[in-house]
Amino acid sequence: MVSVFSYNLFCRSEDAVELAHIVKLLGVIPDVCVEDYIVNFFHDLRVQKRGIVSLDPTLAKFDNLKVLNLSFNVIKRIEFLPPNLEELYLNGNEINEVALNPAKPLTKMIHLGLSMNKVRSTALSLIVKVFPNLFCLDISFNDLCDLESAIVWCKQLLS
């Protein structure tokens, strides 16, 4: 089983390239190759098409992360998100559950890409509570059978 942070952070974001460059120039420095440094280093992280099946609790420690793209993996649950995340791309996964506390909404999130997943109305009702300030919500090509209730939930984002 591969999770996002038990997995080798081999990705294509500019931050990852910069970190790899630093390590290449300076070698493996204990101060750079520790979790505290790494979780504060990234602002934009893109790990696509890598077979990731779950989000690790370590992900929630990435306080400076603004953009996270985990599209085209096999993730089923939205959980352990960084508190200051603004854009989340989970397109082409198997998302069917939101395991976040609606009492602690992620108010900075403005874009949520969930196209080509297995989102149903029950998950959608929680999405609008957990991400109350969304400007863009892409839920195209999902399992939303009851269009009327989906529209009702999405209208809550407008109020």
Task: Explain the overall architecture.
With 159 residues, the chain is of the alpha/beta class. The chain contains four helices and seven strands, in the order ααββββββαβα. The chain has a five-stranded parallel β-sheet. The protein has a two-stranded parallel sheet with strand order 3-5. The longest helix has 13 residues, at 14-26. Residues 1-10 have low confidence and may be disordered.
List keywords for this structure.
159 residues; five-stranded parallel sheet; 4 helices; 7 strands; 25% helix; disordered N terminus
Quick synopsis:
By secondary structure, this protein is an alpha/beta fold.
Q: What amount of the residues lies in strands?
A: 5-15%
The count of DSSP E runs of length 2 or more, i.e. the number of strands, is: 7
Radius of gyration: 16 Å
- Reading the helices and strands in chain order gives HHEEEEEEHEH
Number of helices: 4
